[in-house]
Write a structure and sequence with these properties.
about 625 residues; mainly alpha
């Protein structure tokens, strides 16, 4: 029987049904995480194949993550119309198409087009997976299930470099292509699992497939009428807010293009092309924010439409919510930049395999996800996890300044583990912190309130995904800009490398990869190491911003088990003669005691039960 109400949906998915859905969506998320990290592992062979360092480094990851970041704002809006299940399946289909184009690319432009298409598909997957989880899991259990899919995501980031390195070691020339083909069977399996497990609407897929030709014919007939095109344009403008979407997307693309052209040596920084690209990009991004806050609501009021911007105004108004999104942006920025330049340090500077070198980074982030989730589940103290995580991230990014030519396994683990913990501890804690600022649909009475709460949930969570992915898109571009500026300049000032004076960063990296040096710590290697350390200082700065932002988070606790074990609640109800008014989550005179005294739940319960026998009139007077 179809289930529509949110509370009924949460009640429907329990036990094996819930586990099946979590497994299915985790598989789809594994698909995107493997694809993100596998690219970092096969980047050096791709540089050799296409003979281009600057564009590969600048765009192979941002082409994917930037298209994912921009489209995730729109993906949730589209999925709310076709429902979350078909939204994820659509995303997997688009992702697989992009994978096929990438794996069979004959030139660098085809490669980037494939990555952009895969990124659009990833926008549906990465965003909607979290929305599905929020829809089917009760709030007090959300940290645990968030930690599961976060661990799966991190597991994919661990498997990606392992799979990529295995393909490269076995097939040096074609291995990078096989690394993308591996996504096809994973994606197909994931789609089948989601269709079977996540089906509370009771859809009959055979009937849906049989009805597709009729829908296509009907759509063809409707497309011939001007009135329908007018309705379509009106829907795009008001319902999907394409003005803001296009402004953000074009703004970031133009900004990144300007940085790429200048840092890669295609044009000098004072060239009019670079100045125009960066200026127009910055103006479009600023216009998108102004449109969202000021212009769009006024236009909606003028034409009698409901204002539903892609980025909910709540994201700007609430300091705690804005700070949470800033935290995940900075953490993602730092983590992906550290990952890329650790790989380049080992592959380009030390000429070593990265198979075992970056695993400690991912293992540390995965373990910290589990520990952080269990801590939040027991205590509800989300802010503490984020603050400690950002602090450890600062220390970890600072320790990467100790990278040298005599790296041992113990040094590698010691230098990278804290950087992984800094990111992993914030993966699920930040999205839980976001939920604290939302209107609960269970608390809504009228249908209008429920629609508002659902719209807010989709928009705010989409903005969270946007900020996380934007950090992953921005990190490589800014990091490569710094690396590309410093490397040619420092080579030019070296008297030992006169033959390389005038070389661009692309020429220097290709030279390093093809030149047989007798000593790894030669002059060029030392200069490259100093440039990589400069990029690591950048990650330290962003982790520091992350730490400062975390101090502005809300101190509100999430629903947890520390003070509300089921046995405690049952005992409490018995002492109340079945009266639920003194339940742990209701307003009562001892609620403030619970939030301040750091005692075990059962010990505090003794205090509460000893006081619970206050007479009814006195107790109600205290509550009021």
């Amino acid at each position: 029987m179809p289930v529509e109400d949110l509370k009924s949906i949460k009640d429907h998915y329990k036990g094996l049904k819930l586990y099946a859905v979590v497994f299915a969506i985790s598989t789809s998320l594994l698909l995107t995480s493997i694809d993100t990290s596998i690219v970092a592992a096969v980047m050096t062979p791709m540089i050799k194949h296409f003979n281009n360092y600057a564009e590969i480094t600048d765009w192979i990851i941002p082409a994917y993550t930037l298209s994912t970041a921009c489209c995730c704002l729109l993906a949730s809006r589209i999925a709310s119309v076709i429902n979350l299940k078909y939204g994820v399946c659509l995303g997997i289909s688009i992702f697989e198409l992009g994978t096929i184009i990438t794996a069979s690319s004959a030139n660098i432009n085809m490669l980037f087009i494939g990555r952009c298409i895969a990124g659009i598909g990833s926008a549906f997957i990465s965003n909607l997976v979290y929305l599905i989880l929020i829809e089917i899991v009760v709030e007090e259990k959300l940290p645990f299930y968030m930690s599961i899919i976060s661990v799966v995501f991190n597991m994919g980031t661990v498997l990606g470099p392992i799979i990529g390195s295995a393909f490269i070691d076995s097939y040096p020339t074609m291995g990078w292509r096989y690394s993308f083909w591996i996504n096809l069977p994973i994606g197909f399996t994931s789609m089948m699992l989601i269709l079977l497990a996540y089906n509370h609407h009771g859809d009959n897929y055979l009937k849906i497939i049989a009805a597709v030709p009729g829908h296509i014919v009907s759509l063809g007939k409707k497309s011939g009428k001007i009135h329908n095109w007018r309705l379509f344009a009106n829907s795009c403008f008001f319902d999907y807010d394409v003005v803001e979407f296009l402004s953000f997307a074009l703004g970031f693309v133009l900004l990144f293009l300007g940085l790429t052209y200048a840092s890669g040596g295609v044009y000098p920084w004072d060239n009019y092309r670079v100045i125009i690209l960066i200026s127009i990009g910055a103006v479009l991004i600023f216009f998108a924010i102004v449109w969202d806050v000021l212009l769009y609501p006024r236009i909606c009021i003028k034409y009698g439409e409901t204002a539903n911007p892609l980025i909910d105004v709540l994201c700007y108004k609430k300091i705690g919510l804005f700070a949470t999104n800033l935290c995940i942006f900075c953490a993602s920025f730092s983590f992906i930049t550290i990952l890329i330049y650790l790989i380049q340090f080992y592959q380009i500077v030390l000429e070593q395999s990265t198979l075992s070198k970056i695993i400690p980074l991912f293992v540390a982030s995965s373990v910290s996800v589990i520990i952080g989730a269990r801590f939040i589940e027991r205590t509800g103290m989300v802010k503490l996890v984020i603050v400690v995580g950002s602090l450890l991230g600062c220390v970890g990014a600072g320790m990467l300044q100790l990278l040298n030519f005599n790296m041992t396994s113990s040094k590698n683990i010691g230098y990278t583990i804290l950087a992984g913990v800094g990111y992993g501890s914030q993966v699920q804690s930040t999205i839980i912190a976001v939920q604290q600022h939302l209107t609960k649909e269970e608390d809504c009475i009228t249908e209008e309130e429920k629609k508002f709460a659902e719209r807010q949930r989709i928009n705010v969570n989409s903005f969270y995904s946007f900020m996380r992915l934007l950090g992953m898109a921005t990190g490589p571009v800014v990091g490569n800009t710094i690396f590309s500026i410093l490397l040619p300049k420092r080579v030019h000032h070296s008297s030992d490398l006169e033959s390389l004076h005038g070389y661009s960063v692309n020429d220097l990296v290709i030279y390093r990869l093809t030149y047989d040096t007798e000593q790894l710590n030669d002059t060029l290697g030392k200069i490259m190491l100093t440039c990589i350390k400069a990029v690591m200082w950048l990650t330290f700065c962003f982790y520091a911003i992350n730490l400062c932002a975390s101090l502005f988070l809300s101190g509100k606790k999430s629903p947890h088990k520390f003070f509300n074990d089921s046995s405690d609640i049952e005992n409490n109800k018995e002492n109340n003669n079945g009266d639920d008014s003194d339940d742990m989550h209701s307003e009562n005179p001892f609620k403030k005691i619970e939030s301040f005294i750091p005692l075990q739940g059962r010990k505090l319960l003794i205090v509460r039960l000893s006081l619970i026998h206050i007479s009814e009139p006195t107790r109600h007077a205290q509550i009021s």
